[in-house]
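user: can you give me the structure for this one chain? tokens are fine.
assistant: on it. calling the predictor now.
[tool input]
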Amino acid sequence: MTLPSDAHQGRGIGRALYEHFTEVAKGRGCTGLKAVTPPFNKDSQAFHETMGFRMTGEDINDDGLPVFRDYRVPGEDIVVMRKQI
């Protein structure tokens, strides 16, 4: 799988994919979406916030972000973002 390069960012591709995914999820009866991103990925956090996602967490890390500690493995903090649809 090839990951998109920076050249593809800002062209609306991610937004279009999320909008399509949201419609499919709604059609299948889903009422919310969840995305996870590491605390250091500020671009991802900003993108998801523009899409209506809000950060959730059980703890606050040193940067003031809500995180879930030891999310998948010990020592791995993660930012969980949720959106009602």
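assistant: here you go. The first strand starts at residue 32 and ends at 37. Residues 13-27 form the longest helix (15 residues).
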